UniProtKB/TrEMBL annotation:
UniProt keywords, alphabetically: Antibiotic resistance
Family, per entry: Belongs to the bleomycin resistance protein family.
GO biological process: response to antibiotic
Protein name according to UniProt: Bleomycin resistance protein
VOC domain: residues covered: 3-122
Organism domain of life: Bacteria
Length: 126
């Protein structure tokens, strides 16, 4: 029997509220737990732990590089579902869905803190 269940990344953000609004209202996650400057959001078994911190407890702002990658079965269906909400984000914060040369079809969304959330699926036959 295997012991591992999943990997749940931690996202460090300067403020919790904008992150929760982004994940819940834009990407369709639900906040399952929140206390102080910490929250756990989840969608369909994929979870992210979010921790707000400033100064020595903070993290540098995102640089739009890959930080969080969520494997999905149908990236185009996800895009169709999210499109009305994604259209409310700043220009340039959404890319795709697009086929990538490394065999993935991806939807890329920049979170309020500058980190990149990628949703991807394997391209069959590649």
């Amino acid at each position: 029997m295997s012991n591992f269940i999943q990997i749940t990344p931690f996202m460090h953000v300067p403020e919790l509220e904008p992150a929760l609004t982004f994940f819940n209202d834009i990407l369709g996650f639900k906040t399952h737990y929140r206390t102080g400057d910490y929250a756990y959001v989840e969608r369909e078994g994929a979870g992210i732990r979010i921790l707000a911190g400033q100064g020595e407890d903070g993290a540098p702002p995102g640089n739009r590089r890959f930080c969080y990658y969520v494997d999905v079965r149908d990236v185009d269906a996800l895009y169709d579902e999210l499109k009305p909400r994604l259209d409310t984000l700043p220009a340039g914060d959404v890319h795709g869905p697009a086929d990538k040369p490394y065999g993935q079809r991806e939807l890329l969304v920049v979170a309020p803190d500058g980190n990149l959330i990628a949703f991807g699926q394997a391209i069959t036959g590649v």
